[in-house]
Amino acid sequence: MRHTNVGLLYFNKAKAYSGVTLISPLHGNETYLIGMTGEVLHKWIHPYKPGNYAYLLPTGNLLWAGETPNGPSPGGGKGGLLREYDWDGNIIWEYKDNNQHHDFRRLQNGNTIYIGWEKMPTEAQKRMIGAEAFSEAEGGVTWSDYLCEVNQKGETVWEWHAHSDLKIEDYPLHMMSTRKEFLHCNACHELTDGNLMLSFRKNSMVIVIDKKTKKVLKKWQNDDWGQQHDCQRLKNGNVLIFANGIHVPGGVFSSRVIEFDWDTGDEVWSFSGTPPWSMFSPNISGAQRVQNGNTLICEGLNGRFLEITKTGDVVWEFVNPWFANTDKGPNNSVFRVFRYGLSSPQISKRIKSL
Description:
- This protein is mainly beta.
- It has 2 helices and 28 strands.
- It has a 5-stranded antiparallel beta sheet, with no helix packed on it.
- It is globular.
- It starts with 6 loop residues before the first strand and ends in a 14-residue tail after the last strand.
């Protein structure tokens, strides 16, 4: 897709949530903090392109993952290097695992958790259900997900392994998925009670696992989500996801942001483009509920960001202007974006006005 306009496309100052937006273009080595009209207020420079994003900690430090040249990459989203930078770009902490992919979070206890890939044992691989036959990765390998929690010293203090901690037969893959991966976990979100919410792309499922027992506490699955990203629990108790809309029943190619009830799984709010196909990202992407109740959407593949009200009015629209030349042409894709208010702990006293 070739954008005819980039940068700020629309801004309703009266209704938008004023603040700064953090952007890490997927094919660049910089993270930008921009104002509401797109002016660059701050940036960090990295040794690699992101794997896949960065976000600000309450201290104002930047937690970032970079795509290292080594390690597996069976389904996109590869990282490998986790780094914490201070505001001036000094490295405060780092940890390397070439198998790390997609998501990583600084936990409430100060440790860091991340998703990684590992080869699925043959016995476990035989128990997989669904997906295209004979579609394994090179050498007949299926890659499975693990979670690893490390402390500030880089010591592993907790692990979880999908192939051994889940009953594989209860997680059939979509018939149009490949067997290169089992589940393809693309989000790991810590809840206030310390338990973990995970998003599985290969079967359009979100689960909650008990951190202590590793048992599954909650499970939601809906093929209409179309292999979602960025699951998170909101302050009102509901769950927010970016429903990518790929391989959905009926073949309607459009994306939605969906809020659903924690107890019932019923949809309570959603947003889609008008017409529906005008917002579509078959991969990556996310959403953030900001403090005034609006929702900031990252239509990742197209590098387009929308802030919308509860009633679906667009109050801010911006297209990532930082393109990189790739083997498939110019690319401005972004995995996730974040909005921070000027009085937030991440920004307070660092940027005083817009």
